[in-house]
Amino acid sequence: MQQTVNVSGPGGSGAARWSRASVEQLFDEPLLDLVYRAQSAHRQHFAPGKVQLSTLLSIKTGGCPEDCGYCPQSARYDTGVADEPTLDTAVVVEAARRAREAGATRFCMGAAWRGPKARDLEPVLAMVRAVKALGLETCATLGLLREGQAEQLRDAGLDYYNHNLDTAPEVYGRIVATRSYADRLDTLDRVRRAGLRVCCGGIVGMGEARAERAGLIAALASLDPPPESVPINALVRVDGTPLSGAPELDWSEFVRTIACARITMPASHVRLSAGRREMPEAVQALCFLAGANSIFYGDRLLTTGNPDAHEDRALLAKLGIAPE
Ligand code: SAM
Ligand code: DTB
Ligand code: SF4
User: Fold this and answer.
1) Is the CB of 241 under 6 A from ligand 3?
2) Quick check: 293 and 285 in contact, CB under 8 A?
3) Pairing mode, if any, of strands 202-204 and 269-272?
4) 287 tagged catalytic
5) Tens of pLDDT along 43-101?
6) CA–CA dist 123, 139 (Å, integer)
7) Which of 302, 303, 304, 306 to mutate to test the pocket of ligand 2 (most atoms within 8 A of CB)?
């Protein structure tokens, strides 16, 4: 008998479609039912067996004034990450060229700033123009944006801006004191109004409860429209950060989070993001089954490691997944 799968939301429309309670219910489903439902939703919106490859580069590393409790780049924590100057455009372009040759289609430039000052933005605009000219999709993650900066980035050829909600609203204050959830929503609003595509996700494994993971997913799915890209990061526990001793999150909870992101944001790219180096291949395979269809590709994230590109190519070949 053919089984019917409810792949849509619990009713209603727009921002109210996925309440927090309805996402909590999803999280509580038996794991295999949840993964089946997520894969069914995935196949309604995407060709199966395809993955989008994004390569990251830290264009300005370390020395950040913010106090994000997970981050090795905060100047407040002794993590061994040095405060370095902004990279030269030529260095960035060369890294982007190598990423393209390795098969990446998107190049994401990250900076350890609270947000860019006017003089910080000028070199980034040059980088965006040059990376775009290589035929790559461009993404930047520079922190909080002021009025007009999203438009400057758009006019330089930026396709996506990454700015994560990071966690549920009520958890945020436990992790970051130097800026608020409202600040983050404000930057996301500026990005959207400038006509940029939004890359917005979060981190799990910061000691939050399942209901709080549901709160993150509900907050992401309530962005109107939902983000085009949704990076789901597993906390990389870095010595010296306040969260270095966070309890390890069970792999099944990570898979559930991916599945819930897929079901609630069915047309978005869900990226299996930080934490893959610590993740067994079989867990990564379950994440793809649960609807992940994007990864960070290349042997570094920003300051921490990522699986080697040749290992990832072998894994994707084993699973019959091809770059889109
Ligand atoms: N400074 C900018 C900002 O915070 O918006 C942009 C760069 S910041 C490093 C980008 C994102 O990386 C953060 O929002 C967070 O989600 C993620 N991130 C940072 N450290 C991480 C860690 N140790 N594990 C997982 N994700 C992390
Ligand atoms: C995102 O959600 N994850 C990436 C990217 N956006 C910028 C960053 C992960 C950083 C992991 C810690 C590090 O390498 O410094
Ligand atoms: Fe700075 Fe971004 Fe790290 Fe926060 S996440 S400390 S803003 S680099």
Assistant:
1) no
2) no
3) unpaired
4) no
5) 999 999 999 999 999 999 999 999 999 999 999 999 999 999 999 999 999 999 999 99
6) 15
7) 302
